[in-house]
From TrEMBL:
This is ABC transporter substrate-binding protein. It comes from the Bacteria. GO terms for biological process: peptide transport. The keyword Transport applies. Residues 1-34 form the signal peptide. Keywords: Signal, Transport.
Length: 543
């Protein structure tokens, strides 16, 4: 029996404030607004990518972070150590000797905001729902053998507090706890409330676009698309009350505006600052920067359905158009570290910093590869990218270098929501995005950025960037699967090392950087706690 203690224990007293009064205070002109409300954490963040709060469907970094603070999962990552999994909804779990069954014991005081008791049956239904709806997040379960046909037999709830998860293969237990138990697919939904709002058999998908009916320290109080998200402390939460009553996220697309709001005290936290802004924040009294390495990779992806990019020599040539070191010292000085491997630094099986980034800007090498690929005069293509501060200058950098070898790139910037829709629909030639894995294991990205179980357009595996790039390699698929099931850890590491080296030469994307998360903070913000896999709003306080 694995018996662990959670970071949360007993609940404390709570004060009540009105949302209308809080939003009114936030709307005051900067000249008359002295500070943010003492009972709320106010963030400036670009949140234009939010499209839904349904745990079965969300895939954006912003929405994932918000959901983690509104919906507890079976297990969670330790705030002090991202590689360690600790209890969440489950207070303990037991693993069978053959490694093919995990039995979770849920807490006995789980209650939904509606007042309905949260049971193991609700959780089993919630996990079944993810698979049955078949949105992108279903892949977090289907890649481990769960299907629409077997999920009800493989995930069961024999009583109100027991959830049994059966596996078709002896996957590494630690990986299953990270990839499923600590994933958004293992959140418990209020079945009665959700199904009361079902529309045409959608299992509440439309309703959950704007609601969070789950168990967590906060609940979604309000979302005005492109404007504001308001999270409110959940009065019926099983653990300690959040230190702050509300979290207000203001949509601010411009980094300079975020910095100005932070300096004036109109926000407590700014999330999308440029290197120049960050340098200024570091020098400003009363402000500070918080940094943490993120399991997110920034990449330039190529649509392999296009004959030009189906040629691996063309894809390799594109890697030599990037000045990784130069960008790392300028545009990405605060935002990331050079990284060409699909396995993020810190992950099990990842190549080290040197081996994981063997490329440099080399126009001669790029030109030679293009000649070998049959494009001595280059070609025309497009590059789509979003609104993150570093995206335009990197795109312009690539465009300028590409022109020197005859590759003429048209740049198209768009809102992140549009960018994601185009990318998921394979409606692009090349695209610059970022992808974040949910586990500190090389399998996390191998199973999404590299492996592709079904490359047919009608498969619509939208949560697989490999599918979005129309890339499928039988050899890569086999090696990724073999590494997943290898019980000898040393051999498993060797397999992932080989796969990384192979994919840096022939993979579907030019991975450029691993992200560093930075937040500009007001000096009165205390205990801002985060790491690569989660930010813990409920632990934050203000003086």
């Amino acid at each position: 029996m694995v018996q662990l203690r959670s970071r949360r224990s007993s609940a404390g007293p709570r004060r009540i404030f009105t949302v209308s009064a809080l939003l009114a205070s936030l709307a005051l002109p900067a000249a008359v607004q002295a500070a943010t409300p003492g009972n709320a954490l106010v963030m400036a963040w670009n949140i234009d990518a939010i499209s839904t709060f349904d745990p079965a469907q969300i895939g954006e970094v912003v929405t994932s972070e918000l959901l983690q603070n509104t919906c507890d999962s079976l297990a969670t990552f330790d705030p002090k150590d991202e590689k360690k999994v600790i209890p969440g909804l489950a207070e303990s779990w037991q693993i069978s000797e053959d490694g093919q069954q995990i039995t979770f014991r849920l807490r006995d005081n789980l209650v939904f905001p509606s007042g309905n008791k949260a049971t193991a049956q609700d959780l089993a239904w919630s996990m079944h729902r993810v698979v049955k709806l078949g949105f992108g997040n279903a892949a977090s379960l289907t890649e481990y053998g769960f299907t629409k046909e077997n999920v009800e037999q493989m995930i069961t709830a024999p009583d109100d507090r027991t959830l049994v998860m059966k596996l078709d293969k002896p996957y590494p237990t630690g990986l299953i706890l990270q990839a499923i138990a600590a994933n958004r697919v293992a959140t418990v939904l209020d079945r009665k409330t959700v199904m009361a709002n079902e529309v045409n058999g959608d299992l509440g998908n439309k309703y959950l676009a704007t609601h969070t009916e789950c168990v967590g320290p906060y609940r979604l109080r309000q979302w005005n698309a492109g404007e504001t998200v308001v999270l409110e402390a959940n009065e019926k939460y099983w653990g300690p009350a959040p230190k702050l009553r509300r979290v207000i996220v203001r949509h601010v697309a411009e980094a300079g505006t975020q910095r100005l709001l932070l300096e004036k005290g109109d926000v407590d936290v700014a999330r999308d600052l440029t290197p120049e802004d960050m340098a200024a924040v570091e020098k400003t009294q009363g402000l500070a920067l918080s940094r943490t390495l993120k399991p997110q990779l920034v990449y330039w992806g190529f649509n392999n359905a296009n004959p030009i990019f189906a040629n691996e020599k063309v894809r390799l040539a594109m890697r030599y158009l990037i000045d990784y070191e130069g960008l790392g010292k300028t545009i990405m000085a605060y935002n990331g570290v050079p990284r060409a491997s699909f396995a993020q630094l810190g992950a099990f099986g990842a190549l080290d910093e040197k081996e994981g980034q063997p490329f440099k800007l080399d126009l001669d090498r790029a030109k030679q590869l293009l000649i070998e690929a049959g494009y001595p005069d280059g070609f025309e293509t497009t590059l789509i990218f979003g609104t993150l501060p570093y995206a335009p200058p990197i795109a312009q950098h690539i465009q300028a270098n590409a022109a020197k070898v005859g590759v003429r790139i048209k740049l198209e910037q768009m809102a992140n929501a549009q960018l994601f829709a185009r990318h998921r629909g394979r409606e692009f030639q090349t695209a610059m995005l970022a992808w974040q894995t949910g586990v500190p294991d090389a399998h996390g990205n191998a199973s999404r950025l590299i492996a592709n179980p079904d490359n047919r357009p009608e498969a619509k595996l939208t949560q697989y960037p490999s599918w979005r790039h129309a890339f499928q390699s039988e050899a890569a698929n086999k090696l990724a699967q073999a590494a997943l099931l290898e019980r000898d850890e040393d051999k498993r590491v060797e397999m992932y090392h080989q796969l990384q080296k192979d994919m840096m030469q022939s993979g579907p994307s030019a991975i450029m950087f691993q992200s560093v998360m930075l937040a500009g903070l007001r000096g009165n913000v205390r205990n801002w706690t985060w790491h690569g896999f989660q930010a813990y709003y409920d632990l934050v306080s203000k003086e």
